[in-house]
Automatic annotation (TrEMBL):
InterPro entries: HTH_17 (IPR041657). It comes from Desulfococcus multivorans DSM 2059. Residues 5-52 form the Helix-turn-helix domain. This is Helix-turn-helix domain-containing protein. It comes from the Bacteria.
Amino acid sequence: MTNKLYSISELAKVYGATKWFWRSQIWDGKLPVVKVGRKQFIAAEDIDKFIHDHKQVA
């Protein structure tokens, strides 16, 4: 079973970027979040879309 929602800490571990990178993407409106109280979660499909939208061919 795969996660449907990731915390910022989980994103940092799984995708290798820092927590501050993911937070900056949220603050800049580039990555939507699900807020539960003070916690923020990112949907797996939004991460996939974010990655797809930022792919570049060298």
